[in-house]
Specification:
The complex is a heterodimer of chains A (267) and B (547). Chain A has 267 residues and is of the alpha/beta class. Chain A is built from 13 helices and eight strands. Chain B has 547 residues and is an alpha+beta fold. Chain B is built from 20 helices and 13 strands. The chains are: A alpha/beta (267), B alpha+beta (547).
């Protein structure tokens, strides 16, 4: 509830507020007060109860207000919907923050394939195939990226493919010296290896990935955005520019796709 | 590889207004959200703020290297030094030919020529030894082989009888997978006999920095001053390659491409590329048609000697049938086509007359208004010669008849304005055209085909009466049950508001900018999570089934 002079000047917002206060009497915290251009004394004149509540203040900056609201909403004891039934984005974000094994992340993505569909812009009829689906490729299965997405273009009747490779969530993209990290180097080599396999095994590849053409996109998912300083971001941008056959995305890309799904479901 | 994530975020000013992001990416179109300028003179009227800008989804180098192509912006914002840096990373990229519109267009054009007339058609374009060497070199480049290999394996993972469209949006080839693959495999064998000119290894083309930078020039990057800087940038990175031991090879490769590109790009574009090559010291010149027309041809030859590019003739292709290259067996039934064309003609004349009387301008579709890429056999009825004789002249401008949302919407608008019920005949018309279209399917029996046609016609009639316009009636947008009933429907365009006459934008689907009725993209846009303005297609279908 944004408490401002305008809020207090009108009758109906106060009635709404009283209804919310009544709701809180059942034990659930539902009011997160935000003070906007109002002092404690001015508020105390109208509502002593609210004036005593801990509140965020817009005078401290909108980003601080956002942080305080998030802290309150994500407090395990808050009983907020975000805690009781967290959305995909929150769950994926928590998972990424707490795990070091890629298997836990991929298991989550296998269970929620729409995250990948949304991230790559593929429709519900797009194939999502995981590495484990391709044991029949034999030795080549080792070269296979983690996931293949085959989207159908109805106007041409053909599928187009793209592939993703996941690095461990904690993997650095660049070393402290600004060099490409060994793990990312390995992933980029894997992209090159996969392209070479497709190039050399066109029939076998087309049998498993119908209509695959050599210009398929391949994306390496690695690291988090907030893990890099300004210098590293600049270096990373240059690295991305220098890559002709692969893209690099952070896991935030998938978290944002999950947030889009959450938003759609809420709507 | 187009970076879709980047496309979603870009914002730029165009002559039409401010682009605020990506609205949808289809196999044929890229559509941007556009906040149109209020006083936009491009359209002669205010189109409102909420619009989209659509461009053909042909390769644009800018979209691959995350730079807005200069011709899209009212004032280009690229940074030449940054573009130079990005281009350095592309040297050696074996897919570069598919990232540049004119290069890709050249490859697709040659593939289309090969498909239509084989190597004989290519030979018919060659007037001299230079041209012969150029084609031998080009046909050996990996870009040709890669495209043919893509086609050669189309039957590896799909039903060989399923019809697919391939070879891009400008030179589409539409055939069953098995037919495409068999042709491509035989063509690959034939190409093995073509030997590249001695000393020129075609695969090295991708290492030619001038060819890479030339792609950027063709995509509109670099002013004259920046071209000079770009040439210096190449020299700084690659040690002035034009003067080095590979100079002859690089020169020949650029010469070959300049010659071949004359088949697919405008003279002005070619001149820019020639200018760029000359900054690198190649000394090419383009033939000047005016000079050639002068009375002293020897002098003209003198002027043009040395690096003059050979003239290439258009390929000689003998048309077998107006529908050549299209798999449309039913279209060869002259009686069926004539009947459908008559039906269409009667209908449109009645519609135009009624519209005129009601004071509504109806823009009926005309063949010359429609770009080739729009052409779909299942949307049109083309009258053909009675005689199957190859002597019969082929009409270069057949009176292509179109069935589009314009026709449906116009009918409804006339009915609304006059208060008289919509004309009869639409359902029959659609049925006739649908029959031609569904006849394309080899795997469906005759009775289900007829049932499907009836279902389509009835559905269109009922939907239309209820104020729904499908917008893109074609069999691909319907899922049929085995008995020909309709099981599913895609791409339901929008609802028709019969209370008002149609706006210019609604009637003209081919404008670069149109209101947010991107019917052709609805389905693909939905994949990206964009909401359509259309009603729920399933609900319309349920109503249809109830009736």
């Amino acid at each position: 509830v944004v408490l401002s002079p305008s809020f207090l000047a009108k009758g109906w917002p106060k009635r709404e507020l009283n209804a919310l206060i009544a709701l809180e009497e059942s034990g659930h915290k539902v009011i997160l007060p935000v003070w906007h251009e109002i002092t404690k004394s001015a508020l105390a004149e109208q509502s002593p109860i609210l004036a005593d509540r801990l509140a965020a203040e817009t005078s401290s900056g909108i980003s601080n207000v956002a942080v305080e609201l998030l802290t309150a909403m994500l407090d395990p004891s808050s009983g907020s919907p975000s805690v009781v039934a967290p959305g995909l984005a929150l769950r994926l974000n928590s998972l990424l923050a707490g795990v070091h094994e890629i298997g836990e992340v991929t298991a989550f993505l296998v269970a929620h394939p729409d995250i990948i569909r949304t991230a790559v812009g593929a429709g519900p009829d797009a194939f999502i195939l995981w590495k484990s689906d391709f044991q029949s490729l034999g030795a080549a299965a080792k070269l296979l990226p983690d996931v293949a997405i085959g989207a159908l273009w109805r106007t041409t009747g053909r599928r187009s493919w793209q592939f993703l490779i996941f690095c461990e969530p904690g993997t650095q993209t660049l070393t402290d010296e600004g060099e490409v990290s060994p793990r990312l180097t390995g992933a980029l080599q894997a992209v090159a290896g996969w392209r070479e396999w497709i190039r050399s095994n066109r029939r076998a590849a087309a049998a498993r990935f119908t209509d695959i053409a050599l210009d398929f996109p391949c994306t390496v998912v690695v690291g988090r955005r907030d893990g890099a300083g300004a210098g590293q971001k600049q270096r990373l941008a240059e690295l991305i520019d220098s890559l002709a056959e692969a893209r690099i995305r952070t896991y935030d890309w998938l978290v944002e796709a999950a947030a889009q799904l959450d938003e759609r479901r809420t709507r | 590889m187009i970076d879709v994530e980047w496309l979603k975020t870009i914002q730029f000013e165009t002559d039409y207004g401010h682009v605020t992001g990506l609205a949808g990416l289809g196999s044929q179109w890229i559509v941007f959200k556009l906040r149109a300028s209020g006083d936009n003179q491009k359209f002669g009227k205010d189109i409102g703020e909420d619009a989209v800008l659509k461009i053909l989804n042909t390769p644009r180098l800018g979209f691959h290297i995350c730079e807005i192509p200069p011709d899209l912006e009212s004032k280009p914002t690229y940074d030449a030094a940054r573009v130079n840096r990005k281009l350095r990373a592309q040297v050696g990229n074996p897919l570069f030919d598919s990232m540049v519109g004119p290069y890709n267009g050249l490859y697709e054009s040659v593939i289309a020529t090969l498909h239509r007339g084989g190597l004989d058609a290519i030979r018919s374009m060659i007037d001299d030894e230079d041209a012969e060497a150029i084609f031998a070199f080009f046909l050996n480049t990996p870009g040709v082989r890669r495209r043919l290999e893509d086609a050669a394996f189309l039957d590896a993972g799909g039903n060989p009888r399923e019809i697919v469209t391939w070879n891009g949006v400008l030179h589409p080839i539409e055939e069953p997978r098995g037919t495409v693959a068999a042709w491509a495999r035989s063509m690959l064998k034939e190409l093995n006999a073509i030997v590249a000119p001695e000393g020129y290894e075609a695969a090295k083309l991708y290492e030619n920095p001038f060819w890479i930078w030339g792609g950027a020039v063709l995509d509109g990057f670099f002013t004259s001053e920046e071209m000079a800087e770009a040439a210096q940038s190449i020299a700084a990175s690659f040690g002035n390659p034009a003067e080095g031991p590979d100079g002859a090879r690089l020169r020949f490769e650029m010469f070959a491409f300049l010659s071949l590109l004359s088949l697919v790009v405008e003279r002005d574009e070619l001149r820019r590329l020639t200018d760029f090559c000359n900054y690198a010291g190649f000394g090419f010149s383009m033939a000047d048609p005016k000079l050639e027309e002068e009375q002293n041809p020897e002098r003209a030859a003198e002027e043009m000697r040395g690096a003059k590019m050979p003239k290439l003739s258009p390929p000689s292709l003998v048309p077998k049938f107006p529908e050549e290259g299209r798999i449309d067996p039913m279209a060869q039934d002259c009686q069926l086509l004539r009947a459908a064309a008559t039906l269409f003609s009667d209908f449109t004349v009645r519609l135009a007359t009624a519209a005129h009387a009601a004071g509504i301008a109806v823009m009926l579709p005309r063949a010359e208004n429609e770009a080739d890429v729009h052409w779909k056999p299942w949307r049109s009825v083309v009258p053909v010669q009675d005689s199957a004789s190859t002597q019969a002249p082929v009409d270069n401008e057949p009176s292509t008849l179109w069935l589009t949302q314009r026709l449906l919407a116009s009918t409804q608008a006339v009915a609304a304005r006059t208060g008289v019920a919509a004309q009869d005949g639409m359902a029959e018309l659609i049925e006739a055209i649908g029959y031609v279209a569904i006849g394309r399917s080899y795997d469906v029996g005759e009775q289900p085909k007829l049932n499907a046609c009836r279902s389509l016609g009835a559905l269109a009639a009922i939907s239309h009466r209820r104020g729904y316009i499908h917008g893109d009636l074609q069999p691909e947008n319907f899922k049929f049950k085995e008995d020909g009933g309709i099981a599913g429907m895609f791409d339901l365009g929008r609802t028709c508001n019969p209370g008002r006459p149609l706006t210019l934008l609604e009637r003209t689907s081919d404008l670069a900018v149109l209101k947010k009725h991107v019917t052709f993209l609805e389905w693909e846009a939905a994949k990206l999570g964009y909401r359509s303005e259309a009603l729920d297609a399933d609900k319309v279908l349920a109503q249809f089934e109830q009736e």
